[in-house]
Amino acid sequence: MTAQPMSTAAVGIVLVSHSAELAEGAAHLAAQVSGGTVTIIAAGGTDDGELGTSAAKVERGLSQAESGAGVVVLPDLGSAVLTVRAVLEDYGEAENVLLADAPFVEGAVAATVTAAAGGDIKAVAAAAEEARHVRKL
Amino acid sequence: MSASCEQGVTLAGDLHARPAGALAVAAGRFASAVSVTAGGHTADAKSVLGVMGLGATSGQHVMVSAAGPDAQEAVAALIAILSEATKVGGLAFPGPPDVIARCPCAFSGRPQKREIARAPASLGKMIFISERAGTCLATVLRSRGGCYCWDLAPAAMPICLTAQKSGRARTVPVGLVFSAHG
Q1: What does the alpha-carbon distance between residue B153 and residue B38 come to, in Å, rounded to a whole number?
Q2: In this complex, which of B17, B46, B105 lies closest to A4 when CB atoms are compared?
Q3: Considering its fold, how many domains does chain B have in total?
Q4: pLDDT by residue (tens digit) across B29-42?
Q5: Which domain holds residue A102?
Q6: What angle do CA A73, A74, A78 make, to 5 degrees?
């Protein structure tokens, strides 16, 4: 019998929202749909709990979500993208992080399910971005 | 060897977000292309949003089709998930699971016994789910000192493991070993 190697760790997900509640809620939903096996970090709101984004929260999220397979980041609205980009400019392992251009909730769910299925970082980011084209009606 | 395979099932409940997620996670672990057809619409089974978009409901007939090297295994696994996960109170993902052990996943496809890590739950409450695609149906044989043994069936039903609960076999999708709540 040839032992198969353990599959590597799942790709981590960071959800960057202007709202802490929105990021937490999307993370909860994505975890429920995907079975709770993927690390999903909610990075929502400013450092003092207001609406907005926080570079410090994003940076912490990247560290917490990384388990060796890379991290896919989903921003919600415009300036969340700017915050993530600013963090990635300083982040040491930016090649292990992909910023996905995707609808926030659908992208979070699709990305997490693909990560739970063992998809690599590119597959996870692609699943998030393809969410744009899936009709729900 | 490449092959194609299809099988149908009548849903016991609606194909909501969680069963759709369970289906897509399982489908994503196969090399074959896998699709689900319901009500005249077909979705890529690996796309959770596509599967949810089918809007398949209780009593509806759903067809699973696969083409590729593990098509037969993929169809068998997804039919098992559709049969179980859409039941009211079914096992799709019973809340955030407590991950208690990871399966070594060194399966050869022939019947064998394997012990997994220590697990703080009684036999009747265990659901066994393995880490990797291409694993097998298994029946939990016994529990002793917090260790569980299972018997792996031949690889006719990959990525499904069975836990005995009140003498009744239940089949669940593959992922991790976790304890059922309650």
Answers
A1: 31
A2: B105
A3: 2
A4: 899 999 999 999 99
A5: 12-132
A6: 120
